[in-house]
Amino acid sequence: MNNCRIFLRLTVVLFFVLSFGSTASAAGVIDLPRTGQTTSHAIGDDGDWQAGVTWPSPRFVSGTGIEANCMIDKLTGLMWPKNGNLAGGTKTWQDALTYSNNLNYCGHTDWRLPNVNELESLVNLEEPDTSAWLNIQGFYSVQSNSYWSSSTHRQHSNNALYVVMLYGDVAFHDKTSSGYANVFPVRSSSAAGVIDLPRTGQTISYATGDDGDWQAGIAWPSPRFVSGTGAEADCMIDTLTGLMWLKNGDLAGVAKTWQDALTYSNNLNYCGHSDWRLPNRKELMSLVNRGESSTATWLWTQGLIYVHGGTYWSSSPEDRWHYAWSVDMHHLNYVLSISKIDYHYVFPVRGGQSAILPPVAPEALKATANSSGKITLAWLDKSVYETGYKVFRKVGAGKFVLLNSLPADTETYVDSTATGNDTTTAYSYYVKACSAAGCSKSTPQAVVPYKPTNLVATKVTNGVNLSWTDNSANEKGFKIYRTEGTCSSMNPLKLIKITAADATTFTGGLAPGTYSYKVRAFTQSVLQPYSYGYSTFSNCVTVTVP
C-alpha cells in the first residue's frame, strides 16, 4: 500500500542478509496474518504456534453514511458488500467480472472481482463454516459454496480459481460454467489495514478487470529470494514475507504423514537454528506463484532446489479433525484438505514474527488559507502504527522547521501564525507519521498560493463575464465558486469551474436571477499522492441577470 513502507522493509531484509549474514530479526515487505486457527490438535501445529499477525477485534466494521451497506475488513483494509449474494446467484466467470467492473454501490464505482489472495483472506480456519461465521460478523447471505476469483489458472487458462466459503478450499473450474460459483465484489477502502496483501504473481490479463489487469496488492520485491550466508548458507530468505525456508525442498528425504511432518519440523536443527516448524496454510500459500505454470519449477529458478511438483503439508488442521490443509506446488496449485494419514512432502519454515517498522505516511495533505493569518491543514491517517504526527513548515524561501507535534490519529491542524499568506508571504507544509521505530516519509509539500484580487463581474447576454488579477506564480489553476443571492446570502458556495494556471477570465451562461462569485487559487504537488494548497478567497462580486 505504501511504497516507502515496502522499500524500508526490503532494505531491512537485504541489509541483514548482506551485512550480517543473518536474518533472524529481518522483516519482509509484508507481514502474513494468522489463519484464524486457535485450537491446537498436535504439538507444533497451527493452533499451537498461531504464527502471524493477530487479527483486529472486531475484524469487520460497517461503513457509515453512503457506505452503510458495505463492510470494511480492518485486517486487510478491503471493502466488501454486506450482501454476499448481491449479484443474485451464480454466474460465469466473464459475467462475474463484468458485474463487478460495472458495479456502482456504497457510493463507489471502483469495484472489481477479488483476486485469489483477497478472496482467501476471508477464510477463518478456526470455523467449521466460513460463510456462517461471516454471516454473524455483519454480512448476510454469504453462500457456503464457491465464489469466483479474478485469477486465471495459469496451466489451464480456460479455468479460473475459486474459493469455497464452507471449508476454504482453493481450486479451479471452467470459466464458462454458469451454475458453479457466486460473485463477491471488492474494492480498496480508504482505511489502512493491519496487513497488506501481496500480489498473486499473475501478470497476464485474460479479460478486462481480471487479476492480471488489476494486479492488486503489494508488488513482489526483486530478488524475491536471497540466500543466507555463513551458518545460514543452506537456507533461503523470502524478501516478501521475511520467512526463512530450506534451500532443499526435499531435505526430509521422503513423504510423510501429517504427524510425522510436524515431528520432523519441530525437531529440525538446521542453518544454525532450532526453531523450525511446519508452515501454516497462509505461509505455505505465500510460495505459490499464480503467474507460473508450475510453482515448483519457478522456485528452482529462484535458488531453491529439489522442490517437488506435488503436495506439501501445512500445519493447519481442517475442521474435520482427521484432515489437514495442503498446497500443491506443481500445475494444479490446489489448496485442499486431505487425510492426515496420507503421505506428502515437508517444507519446514521459521521466522515471520511481526517487525517494528516506521508507520505509513499520511496522504492527501491539504493546506487551506482561511484568512490572511490562518491556514488549516488536513490529511488522511493511513497508518495503524503511529504514536503521533509532526508538522513541518517553510516560510518564504527559508528552510522547513518543525511547527508542531501532534498525537496519534490526528488528521487536522490549524496554523494561526501564517501572517500575510494572502499577499506577501508563501507558506509550505508537509506532515510525517512517527512512532518509536522512526518516522514515515514526508507527504508531498502543500504550498499555499497568493489569493486572486480585483474580481469583477460584468453582465453579458444571458450570462456573466468574470475577470481577476492573478497574484501567484505557482498555481495549478483557479477554482470559481457561485451562490444564489447577494454576497451576504447564507446560501452555500458551489464549485462551478476549475481553470488552468494563469487564467484571469471566465464567461458562463446564467438563468435570470441574482448570483455572487468568489475565486481562489490552488496548487498541486508534483509528487503523488498529491498534496494541495488553497489561497483565501478573492473579494465577492454580485451580478443580476434579468
Structure, described:
With about 550 residues, the protein is mainly beta. It has four domains: about 65-215, Mannose-Binding Protein A, Chain A (Roll), CATH 3.10.100; about 225-350, Roll (Mannose-Binding Protein A, Chain A), CATH 3.10.100; about 365-450, Sandwich (Immunoglobulin-like), CATH 2.60.40; about 455-545, Immunoglobulin-like (Sandwich). It is about 10% helix and about 30% strand. The protein contains nine helices and 31 strands. The strands form seven sheets. Strands 16, 17, 20, 26, 27, 29, 30 and 31 form an eight-stranded mixed β-sheet that branches. Strand 18 (about 390-395) and strand 19 (about 400-405) form a beta hairpin. It starts with a helix and ends with a strand. The relative contact order is 0.11.
Task: List its salient traits.
mainly beta, Immunoglobulin-like, disordered N terminus, 9 helices, 8-stranded mixed sheet, 5-stranded antiparallel sheet, Mannose-Binding Protein A, Chain A, 4 domains, 546 residues
Number of domains: 4
The helical percent reads 10-25%
| Number of distinct helices | 9
Kindly report the CATH topology of the largest domain. Mannose-Binding Protein A, Chain A
Mean pLDDT over the residues:
91
Overall form: elongated
Low-confidence stretches: 1-25
The CATH class of the largest domain is: Alpha Beta
Strand fraction? 25-35%
Distance linking N and C termini: 54 Å
